Amino acid sequence: MVRVRRDSEAEDAGAEGAGPEGGIPRRPRPRGAGTGVTVLLTSAMAFSMMQLFLIGALGPRLVGELGLSRTVLGLTTTAGFGAAALLSPVAGRLVDRVGPRRCLVALLLLAAGSLALIGAAPGAVVLLSAVALGGLAQALANPATNKVILAGFPAERRGAVTGLKQSGVQVGAFVAGLPLSVLAAGVGWRGAVWTAAGAAALAAGWAARVLPPDPPRVAAGPRSASLTRGAVGRLAGFSMLLGCGIASVNTYLALFGAQRLGLPPVAAAALVAVLGVAGIGGRVGWSRAAGRPGRARALPGLLAAGAVGAALLLALALVLPLLVWPAAVAVGSFAVSANAVSMVLVLQSAAPGRAGADSALVSAGFFAGFAVGPPLFGALVSACGYGPGWLLVAVEFAAAAVVAVPLRSREIGEA
């Protein structure tokens, strides 16, 4: 009989780690498990959101050639994250049912298809449809990559690997904002997007070659005391509030720097780059720390509390503009990193057969926050200015910290 482990050793029975004591041989790890698989997972996270990053980076070219309004361009974010939030619960169950290898390959092929459609888009309808298709890739990303980590890496390495693969989102933003934008200047924006589509298709082939076949489906066992349905819902709520604040900062930080602080365009864009680099370092570092026994439960609330300070620094930058730089670093180090720590907590505590579904529900909350946060922030800034807008972000982060407090309980099932 397969034994269910409650702590960082929790794995999907029969699929991700039934040991010899259970009479079932351990599933073979992916060939070259380690650096190669980690790079693959990081790449999958980057491609899962590449379409949104590219639209943001190439926005001026799209507006000019396709005749899009700024409103329609903004709707691409809502379409992408809205579709991801709605599809995440279904995607999580799908990963648990058919296996991470098939879903990871499908994720990369969907990303390639979405990018190819964007490159061929004659107008707004096809563009929005392509971004919505990419939302399914986003929905599959965390469940599929988390299940690969459970299957291929020992418990003591999962925190570090999770942080590295979560940093892939920021890597995707960097690639879209620099190399592909430079390429677009030479071959046109469609050529740059099609190049990204081809790279995603190649990554799908790489995943099919590197990852072992998915095993037969094992029925999900009962939830362990480590992660009840209520605790998953709490993590999803935490992620939604966190996503509202992060998305508002991502969307408006450069505009804030240019419009209110008088920064030149290059310096204003550099604020986003600083935030991204800090996010990569924070996700890797904090996820590694969360991988140690007993750490993951306390970190979400602490990181959200640190994010409150970052938002207050942004508000104070209206008086002392130089504070915008440490504020950008703090948002990346605390707020952006907290999402990766949430995924570490799910991996440590998910019951057998439920890692995909639990990951998807937490991701759905985060995506919902990304869809809702910027419109609220934008409306408040239009009515009252950036000061109240940054205070709203601080309130969102503070609410996330409050929601996360019960997670610190040793018996998270009682939360």
Automatic annotation (TrEMBL):
Residues 1-31 are annotated as: Disordered. The keyword Thylakoid does not apply. Its main location: membrane. One of its GO terms (molecular function) is transmembrane transporter activity. It is found in: Cell membrane. The chain crosses the membrane at residues 36-59, 71-92, 104-133, 232-254, 266-286, 298-319, 325-347, 359-383, 389-407. The keyword Plastid does not apply. Keywords: Cell membrane, Membrane, Transmembrane, Transmembrane helix. One of its GO terms (cellular component) is plasma membrane. It is a multi-pass membrane protein. Residues 37-412 form the Major facilitator superfamily (MFS) profile domain. PANTHER family: CHLORAMPHENICOL EFFLUX PUMP RV0191 (PTHR43124:SF3), PURINE EFFLUX PUMP PBUE (PTHR43124). This is MFS transporter. It comes from Streptomyces sioyaensis.
